[in-house]
Amino acid sequence: MGNLERAGDFCAEGPGQELKRQSSRGSRRKKRLLLAILAGILLFASWTLYIQLRIGQGMTLDHNHQTDVGIVLGASLWDNKPSPALQERLEAAYEGYRREEYPVLIVSGGLDHPQMRLTEAEGMAAYLEERGVPKERILLENKATSTYENLLFSKKIMQEHDMRDATIVTHRFHGARALDIAEFLGYEDPQFALAPTRALNLWQTRGREMLAFTKWLFDKPSLPVDS
Questions:
Q1: pLDDT per residue over 22-75, tens digit each?
Q2: Beta strand pairing status for 105-108 and 81-82?
Q3: Considering the entire predicted model, what is its pTM?
Q4: Is 213:51 a contact under the CB 8 Å cutoff?
């Protein structure tokens, strides 16, 4: 009798009810997927806003006092000479040196790729010598391949020469990340000389900087503070 009752219940329910249940389950899955997509979009938008605000704040960093050294962060060489963007950093570094804001310069950057004849540091040093900076006033850091390494290896050079504080020379869009890295590495009251961004598309550059800043923040917990 029990089996007949269950069979009767199934027949009474019919295929229409089963289709309704399947439709309801599908609708719930679609809603959950939609909520997940919206949450992802909101998270991405919030993170983008946060990073862009930090980049914007970094663009207002000022150089307030004299330091023992100026550190020029490297960028690409074109045909073994500083690219237009790197020239902007070098001109900012030269102006600070000319105003006696720092007596010595560290130029930091390794090989862009193995086929290059000069490291970024060697190309920068040659440029500054042409601008009138004496060779003995330029220290070369020839290994760095990232901003983190620029500042890590330059700090070691500072320690070898009993230098206490530094002015970091880079572009405005790059100031916030450079500051965060310098503080992570224990730089004492780092100062900044920030070059304008005329040789680069500012919006494309800020987009790339957002990705680089995000990568840095994720990598930072696993990186050493001493070379």
A1: 666 767 788 888 889 999 999 999 999 999 999 998 888 988 899 999 999 999
A2: unpaired
A3: 0.83
A4: yes
Contacts of 226 (CB under 8 A, 6+ apart): 152
Torsion of CA 121, 124, 126, 130, to 10 degrees: -160
Structure-token match 């100031």, residue found? 175
Query: What single-letter amino acid sits at 29?
Result: R
3-state secondary structure labels for all residues of the chain = CHHHHHHHHHHHHHHHHHHHHHHHHHHHHHHHHHHHHHHHHHHHHHHHHHHHHHHHHHCCCCCCCCCCEEEEECCCEECCEECHHHHHHHHHHHHHHHCCCCCCEEEECCCCCCCCCCCHHHHHHHHHHHCCCCHHHEEEECCCCCHHHHHHHHHHHHHHCCCCCEEEEEEHHHHHHHHHHHHHCCCCCCEEEEECCCCCCHHHHHHHHHHHHHHHHHHHHHCCCCC
Domains and CATH numbers, the chain: 69-222 (3.40.50.620)
Question: pLDDT tens digits, residue range 91-104?
Answer: 999 999 999 999 99
Q: Are 137 and 167 in contact (CB under 8 A)?
A: no
From the number of C-beta atoms within 10 Å of its C-beta (0-12, 13-18, 19+), residue 176 rates as buried
